[in-house]
Structures are given as structure tokens and as C-alpha cells.
Amino acid sequence: MPEDVFTPRMSRSSSFLTRIFRAFRYRDFRLMWTGACVSTIGTFVQQFAQSWLVYDLTRDAFYLGLDLFLGQLPIMLFSLFGGVFADRMDRRKMLLVSQYIQMACAFLLALLFVTHVVKVWHILALSFFVGLGQSFGGPAYSALLPTLVGPEDLSNAIAMNSIQFNLARIIGPTIGGLAYTTLGATWCFTLNGISYIAVIISLFMIHVKFVPAKSTESVLKSMKEGIRFIRSRDGMTALVILAFCTTLFGFSLNGFLPVFVQTVFHRGPQTYTLLLVCSGAGSIAGALSVAAVEKMKGQGRLTLLILILLGLVIAAFALSRWLPLSCVLMFLAGTAIMASASFMLSLAQLITTDAMRGRVMSVYNLAFRAGIPLGALLLGKLIPIFGVSKALSGAGLTLVAISLYFLLVNRDATFRPATQQT
Known about the structure:
By secondary structure, this protein is mostly helical.
């Protein structure tokens, strides 16, 4: 067959891949993506070993929950302060300090374990300090990322960032399991410590285009200024509310899958794993779909439509009694969760300005994170009363109602980028 028959097809395929991975055209983004991916893999390697170690030391599931809680507590308490400092300090330096803290904690835990002196309170304290580093590093990273790509490729960059997290979520525990069984827990913690070197090197290599001006005003005044900015921007308040409601009513599905597996399908861990794999595959598909979108016009309306779909899929899954259908619905839920989260994050980044980005994104991320534990707590209280199917379907339909309100009633939430607002 003549060669020119394949040329148009290969050209279209190359063009499609170029469009999906267009954020990698930027040198600084490639460096940050690679460093962040390696570091995130290391984090999941340590999480695997740390969970086993905590349970081995205590034989009490309560301490597993306490360890996770203490890791998230500083993020909830100090992220708003981290956002203020991200708008008045060099964001690269803030990220470097955050990485140094987390790397030191990983190596210290490895040292405590190899010398056989580790106690559970050591692990709990180190989890808190890691969370403290993340509470300041998170806003700095959120503020730095948009400066690495052009505004037209921001949505793609955020989708690519989601893909690296999901890849790390798969690769990290796999490496962690192998390292734990063959080398021991010490090497899991050591590998995590080493992984921070990758992101530290990438931070030294990138060219920072925007450095915030120094400020002498008080932290609380700066924080209030950020909140005023959010209230004054068309669509920003709506995005913060939507971010909270999305995680409150839409992100608890995976957390309660064991209840469905045991009480609805009467199956075991294999079915649980199958549903998680379907969700993970959907998440990657959702991120790739967002990455393929080139135009930002109408993204606010599209986000609301995806949230409506997510609510309906959650309700359908809650009522499903056929496992193949439930697997398909888990895939769709994973796709909708990742697509809606990526679109909302890119919209929030576009609505704000460089000078306010740290404070605005710290408020947005706090709202987004706060909905997850509160949603789990709410459903945990409602399930014993109404049953898992009614409680979860109610959560899904509530998300549909909220999204319809913003779509049909509150049309002033236009989600316009900052460059289009006055």
C-alpha cells in the first residue's frame, strides 16, 4: 500500500497527541511535572509502609485514622496563612523550604526505624510536621504553576498535573509493596526522602517569571484582602461554593465502596479492587479529556453540566444491583470527578491575578479539601439511619440540585477570567 495513505492518519494522530500534551512544550512545566511526579510516587511509597508500621506498633485501627487526621490537620489550620505568604514571598523559596521539611521527616523516620527506637508518637508527630510543610508548600505550588505555561494552556497543565498524581497513586503503592516485602520499611522511608531531591532540583532549574512584591501589612489584613477579592470577582464565590459542595456530596463514593461490596453485592476484596480500578481508569480518562480541550469559552457551563452528570451517576450507582453496570458507573464517576475538579481549578486560576493568587487559591483549596472529611462524616451518620443506597443517592441528587441552581438561577456566576474583568 502506498506510503501516502498512512500519512494523513499519522498526521492526525500526531496532532491529537500534541494537543493533549501541549503543556509539555514549556520547559519549566516539564521540569516541575517530572520532579513532582517522582516526589509524589515517593510519598505513596512511604504511605504504604507507614500504614503497616502504625498498625504493627499499635494493633489499633484508631491510630491509622489519627495518623491520617494529624497529616491533614495543619493543612486545614494553616493553608490560609500559607496563601498570604505565597503572595508576599518568593514562591520557589517557599516550595524549597516545604520540600526540605518533608525530606527531613522522611529520613528521620527511616533513622528511627533502622535504629529500632521508633514509637507511634514519633510517626504521629512527623505526620503533623509533614502536613505543616504542605500547608505552606501547597499554596505556593498552586500559585507558581500558572506562571509556567501560557493562559491558553493552563487547563491542559492542570489536567497533566492530575494525571501525574493518578499515575503516582498507582505506581507508588506498587513500588511500596515490593520495597516493603523485599527491602523492609526503612527503604520505603529512605526512597521517599530521596524522591524529594527530584523536585528540589527542578525548582532550582526553572525560571520564575513572577515574584510577589514584599508587603509590610499584617497577615490578617492580607487575608481579609484576599477574601474581599474573591467576593468582588464574578464567579469566584460561586466556584468556592461549588468546590465545597462537590467534595461534600460527590467525593464520598469511593470511601463507602466497602459497604456496597459487602451489603449489596455480598462480595469480597476482589470486587472492591475491581471498582477502585474502574474509578481510577475513569479519573485518567477524565484528565485526558480535559487536556484535549483547547478553548476556555463556555467552560463554566460545561463544568456545571459535568457536575449534574456526576450527581446522577452517583445516584444511579447507589441504586444499582448489577455489578457490570456498577463498574461502568464507577468509570463514569471517576471521569466526571476528575474533569469537574480540573475545570473548576483552572477556572479559579484564570479568574484570579498573580498578585492575589496565593491567597485566593488557599481559600479555594481549603473549601475543596474541607468538603471531603465533612462529607464522609455526614454520610457516616446518615447511612445507619437511611441505609447506604438512600443516603448516597440523596447526596448525588443534592449535588444535581445545587448545580442546576447555578446553571439556571444564579446566572451572574459567569466564571470570567481575570483579564476579562474590570
